[in-house]
Amino acid sequence: MIWQSGRLVAVGVMASVLTCACSATPPAETKTPLTLDSPEMAATLSGIQGTPIKQHMTVLADDGLEGRGPGTAGYEGALRYLETTATAYGLAPAGEAGTFRQRVPLRNSVVVESASAMTVRSSAGATRLTYGADYLLSADPLREDVAIDDAPVVFVGYGVSAPALGYDDYASGADVTGKVVAFLSGAPARLPSNERAYYSSGAVKEAEALRRGAIGTISFTSPDDPRFRWDVSVATSKQGGYAWVDAQGKPNRGDAALRGAASLNHSGVQALFAGAPTTPADVFAAAAKSTPQAFALATRVSLATRSTHKDVESANLVARLEGSDPALKNEHVVYVAHVDHFGRGVAMNGDEIYNGAHDNASGVAIVLEVARAWAALPVKPRRSALFVFVTAEERGLLGSDYFARHPTVPASGIVADLTLDMPFMFHPLLDIVPYGAQHSTLSVPVTRAAQHLGIGIGTDPIPEQALFIRSDHFSFVRQGVPSLFIKSGFQTGDPAKDGAAINAAYRRDVYHKPNDDMSQPFDFEAGAAHARLNFLTGWQVADEAVRPSWNPGDFFGTLFGQAQAAAAR
Ligand SMILES: [Zn+2]
Q1: Ligand 1 centroid to residue 358 C-alpha, Å
Q2: Residue by residue, what is the 3-state secondary structure of 304-366?
Q3: What's the angle, vertex CA 374, arms to CA 370 and CA 379, rounded to 5?
Q4: CA of 83 to the centre of ligand 1 (A)
Q5: Measured in angstroms, how far is the CA atom of residue 341 from the centroid of ligand 1?
Q6: 360: preceding bond cis by omega (within 30 degrees)
Q7: Mean pLDDT, rounded, for 412-424
Q8: Residues 116-132: pLDDT tens digits?
Q9: Calpha distance 206→258 (Å, rounded)
Q10: Nearest partner of 323 among 28, 533, 539, 26, judged by Cα
Q11: What is the three-class DSSP state of 462?
Q12: Which of 245, 301, 494, 555 is the most buried (most CB within 10 A)?
């Protein structure tokens, strides 16, 4: 399972020779800082290749690593491969106690379906819904048994309260105290892309509902929402929910005020809306027009949730390359990619291994290639680079959240995050969508890098996918760190290839299913282009005199920027 070809070893030896040459007193001319246009930079960029990316992906997505589920032998095998590769590339361990590892203790909570129930009572009588067919429950991370008994239900549109952005489903003053709130997944299309993504977060909606006194939540999805895939939701829910656990044994998720959380299939929505003043079709139509909604439903709901809890040991892997400036080397540009995927799960088409080749062996492979190039630089930029390979992203960004809150380097010195996750590599990289660039001065280095490489920059073509909150960069945003999450745009350079259609088909047919494996038609040169772009962006951030900052008055800078200011004090 540990891949050891001649090429990898040769590259590793080369990298360590270069490292040694730099740390011995070098001739003065090699200390000249590199520039974007220097021949050394051109050589570094052309040295970034698709072949190593393909090799890393082939190892990580192999059936032998069993889909890299946290706490499994397959995940451990992936970490060992990363340790071997990082060592060969000349990276230094920067985890705990001089190792590459940062321990991440997790708790897995699973619903006991046979001891759980959901009943909807209308004037026509009580209907007991069928688990998995009509509804799913979220396991409670804190308690074995929680229940809601015959509570009134208030439908609150998207469940979004964002008065500063001119949208508030709760504006009519709906009283939800002691009640269950029901809301649509997603957020109004009238909000800007990344703010819309933020307000579409289930955690944000739940916190809003609990702040207003609600005791339970029910979410459901419009039938034309491309994110609705009930079979995948059922399969994923069998694996339960996860939280990370702090030193006192307290999970980072769960609120004692929440006594039940359900999500509904379309049949469940019909039951919930029995006798309602408005039909589901009408509320979907109003939501599509970004019209705030809130009204009491005619039904009452009972929920009983039994959960089992199990401790799972997992780990992040942290590797470092030191910067050249005596002071600024204590600051870090952080590259992040999640190692985990869903492991073994519910079989689809006879396959129970969720290989996660694109999600996210691709991102890990690209970050490794960035690290290899960085290690081989004849002169390092002023700041240091940190390469963090995280666990449990698929369980709610847990490994990255744990690292961002408990970094193994000083928190105040984390100047930027660049996350690679499923960058989209099914056609040449001709344009990018740099999620996060519009919020901070990181727009400058990413624009410059794209121009240098002849790559275009577009705007978010799929805001309904809420991508800005859906990967590990968002864990850093929450800690006030300016961050970028760069995805491919839809240009393919081939009139016969429709980039939008390829993207939609992947999200519908492959994403989070066992067929996300190496049989897909990956364009590894596009992977190399992603590596060059992320390398060049991070290199500029590492070499600039001034660290990145949020734009004045920015939504995310205002919401979270003080977290980093506090860390700096
Ligand atoms: Zn995923």
Answers
A1: 9
A2: EEEEEEEEEEEEEEEEEECCCCCCHHHCEEEEEEECCCCEEEEEECCEEEECCHHHHHHHHHH
A3: 160
A4: 23
A5: 7
A6: yes
A7: 97
A8: 999 999 999 999 999 99
A9: 9
A10: 539
A11: coil
A12: 301
Q: What is the pLDDT of residues 131-148, one digit of tens each?
A: 999 999 999 999 999 999
pTM for this predicted structure: 0.90
Phi, psi of 364 (to 5 degrees): -60, -45
- With beta carbons less than 8 A apart as the criterion, state whether 474 and 486 touch: no
Distance 394 CA to ligand 1 centre (A): 5
Percent of the chain at pLDDT > 90 equals 89
Alpha-carbon distance of 543 to 444, in angstroms, equals 13
What spacing in Å lies between the alpha carbon of 67 and ligand 1's midpoint?
12
The Å distance, Cα 546 to ligand 1 centre, comes to: 34
Q: Using CA atoms, how far apart are residues 503 and 426, in angstroms rounded to an integer?
A: 9
- Specify which residues 148 forms β-bridges with: 303
Q: How far apart are the first and last CA of the chain?
A: 45
The C-alpha angle with vertex 120 and arms to 307 and 395, in degrees rounded to 5, equals 35
Length of the chain: 569
Confirm if 440 and 555 have CB atoms less than 8 A apart. Answer: no
- Return the residue matching tokens 């819309």: 196
If one counts every other C-beta atom within 10 angstroms of the C-beta of residue 295, the result is: 15
| Alpha carbon of 69 to ligand 1 centroid (Å) | 12
pLDDT in tens, 195-238: 999 999 999 999 999 999 999 999 999 998 888 999 999 999 99
Identify the pLDDT of residue 349: 95
Model confidence band, residue 565 (pLDDT cutoffs 50, 70, 90): low
Q: What is the dihedral of CA 172, 198, 67, 58, to 10 degrees?
A: 150
Tell how far the Cα of 498 is from the centroid of ligand 1, in angstroms: 23
Q: Rounded to the nearest whole angstrom, what is the distance from the C-alpha of residue 179 to the centroid of ligand 1?
A: 33
- pLDDT above 90: residue 51: yes
How many Å lie between the centroid of ligand 1 and the Cα of residue 387?
Answer: 19
Ligand 1 centre distance from Cα of residue 552 (Å): 32
How remote is the CA of residue 300 from the centroid of ligand 1, in Å?
Answer: 35
Which has the minimum average pLDDT: 12-16, 27-31, 342-346, 563-567? Answer: 12-16
**Distance from residue 340's CA to the centre of ligand 1 (Å):** 9
Measure 547 CA to ligand 1 centroid, in angstroms: 30
Residue 363 is inside which H or E element, if any? helix 362-375
Helical residues (DSSP H) of 264-327, grouped into ranges: 266-272, 280-288
The pair of structure tokens assigned to 38 is 């220097």
Q: How far is the CA of 513 from the centre of ligand 1 (A)?
A: 10
Q: How far is the CA of 313 from the centre of ligand 1 (A)?
A: 20
Q: Which of 70-84, 107-121, 355-369, 450-464 has the lowest mean pLDDT?
A: 450-464
For residue 378, count other CB atoms closer than 10 A to its CB: 17
